[in-house]
């Protein structure tokens, strides 16, 4: 039986092509002019190292984290999605994001549309700005480590 203070409904969202109707990685790479480098590197790299490399490419082209934020803020978000998120949060649902995007992209978009505070947790690839002002994207887990073993349900 659930405790009186715990939410009874947990709603888990993906980000790309769910909360947003587009792919955030593709949006940034295309809008900021690095699609050529992406197409050249895509066959040779795993996704997270590729996205980190693409952020290095954008940095080398003079794009700042603020340019990336501006690009993300320019992308459309369906008003029905914003309304649904706000309504679910107001009803006491526990909202979470589980995504293969990254914290920088997700938090930028959700904050811009006034719904970041509606989510109790975002589980995704970490991102940060390094000392050189370059956005860095890391994998959620170390690809060299063994995968976690699922425990059987009781």
From TrEMBL:
Pfam families: Put_Phosphatase (PF06888). SUPFAM superfamilies: HAD-like. Substrate binds at residues 25, 100. Transmembrane segments: none annotated. Mg(2+) binds at residues 14, 16. Keywords: Hydrolase, Magnesium, Metal-binding. The active site is at residues 14, 16. It comes from the Eukaryota. The keyword Hydrolase applies. One of its GO terms (molecular function) is metal ion binding. Its cofactor is Mg(2+). The keyword Metal-binding applies. This is Phosphoethanolamine/phosphocholine phosphatase. PANTHER family: OS01G0600500 PROTEIN (PTHR20889:SF28), PHOSPHATASE, ORPHAN 1, 2 (PTHR20889).
């Amino acid at each position: 039986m659930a405790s009186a203070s715990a939410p009874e409904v947990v709603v888990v969202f993906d980000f790309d092509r769910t909360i947003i109707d587009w792919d955030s990685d593709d949006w940034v790479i295309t809008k900021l002019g690095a699609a050529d480098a992406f197409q050249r590197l895509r066959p040779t790299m795993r996704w997270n190292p590729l996205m980190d490399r693409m952020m290095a490419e954008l940095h080398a082209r003079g794009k700042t984290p603020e340019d990336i934020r501006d690009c993300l803020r320019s992308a459309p978000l369906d008003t029905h999605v914003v309304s649904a998120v706000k309504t679910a949060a107001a009803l006491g649902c526990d909202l979470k994001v589980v995504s293969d995007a990254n914290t920088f992209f997700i938090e930028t978009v959700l904050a811009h549309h006034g719904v970041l505070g509606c989510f109790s947790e975002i589980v995704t690839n970490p991102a940060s700005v390094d000392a050189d002002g370059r956005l860095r994207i890391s994998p959620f887990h170390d690809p060299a480590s063994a995968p976690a073993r699922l425990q059987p349900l009781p």
